[in-house]
Specification:
Blueprint (H helix, E strand, L loop, with lengths): L19 E10 L2 E8 L10 E5 L4 E5 L17 E7 L7 E7 L14 E5 L4 E4 L1 H4 L14 E2 L7 E3 L2 E8 L4 E7 L5 E7 L5 E9 L2 E8 L4 E3 L5 E3 L3 E7 L8 E6 L7 E6 L5 E6 L4 E6 L6 H4 E6 L23 H5 L2
Antiparallel strand pairs: 1-2, 2-3, 3-4, 5-6, 6-7, 7-8, 9-11, 10-11, 11-12, 12-13, 14-15, 15-18, 16-17, 18-19, 20-21, 21-22, 22-23
Pfam families: b-prop_At3g26010-like
InterPro entries: At3g26010-like (IPR055290), Beta-prop_At3g26010-like (IPR056592)
Organism: Zea mays
Length: 335
Amino acid sequence: MPVPEDTDTEFSFIELPDHVGTIDLLSSCNGLLLFGCTEEGSESYHSLGYVVCNPATKQWAAVPSSGWVVKQGEEREEEFESTFLFFDPSVPSRFLLIQFWHDEDAALDLVGDKGVHVYSSETGEWSNRSSEWKQFARGGEWGDRYGVMITSWLGSSFLNGMLHFFVQRMCEGDVLVVAIDGEGSVRRTIRWPLHMFSQPVFIGQSQGRLRCVSERRGLRRRQDEAQSYRVTPSYIDIDVLPEDHDEPEESQITMFAISAGDYEVVAFHPHGDLVYFVDRRNGDLIQYDMGSSYPEDEQVLRLCNLGHNFRAVIPYVPCFSMSSALHTNEELFDV
């Protein structure tokens, strides 16, 4: 659906202090958007905390920093931190942020119980939840670190009152889909059976079902009309995860006409068999119809060009309900 005409796409309703240098769009959840704020001239990623907002209602809220900063002398990298936004429209008085800290090897920093923090808008405070996540380091520590990796750029999906995202366990060599409830606690884990030579690239939902995308890195060769050989595009496996057991009900394999590394899966259509990805070679946003019986070249529709400088593509569906966890400028400044 198109964005309503009165939606402020420049977010001018957010009143940020002058010392905020940059804000980064990180994620969305049920109509709310999450931004990270960094101080002018600072090398500490999101040193000023976050902003959560609803563009449809022009409400927003500032979230203080959890206290996490990149250590002095280290490069400023987004991979050091992954933060997820949790918002359940049936409980509009609350939102959560779930923040994961990583060490220099991109593993979840659970040494010293400091790797996982949860912010609740109800209390206005961050809480340390690291001890709950050591269960995923089953098999012991990896050297002096826990071999667990969580990256928000692989997406997340809100379904049945829970937020789902990937947990990669390097010691176990597997990938889990973890479901978080409205208290920030783990309520469900699903082991995702990766195919050989594959890696997770995206998680989303469509038509009330979780869909997980993996990329098969092993490429096959085929002979063309000139009797020469060339590498075919990589395979994309789309697994539809079940409600009540650990194995996928079905798997659909689609081959895109783009080589591995040249695309980024960014969204599923919530009500149809459509998947969206970006062609990194030229910045095209592409729609692919998984349910179509037409030839492959007719299943692909190039929607628009994002240019070569796009930072992120975040799925967004407007929410027109007011939330008591957010405020308008009139409420904040008594205008």
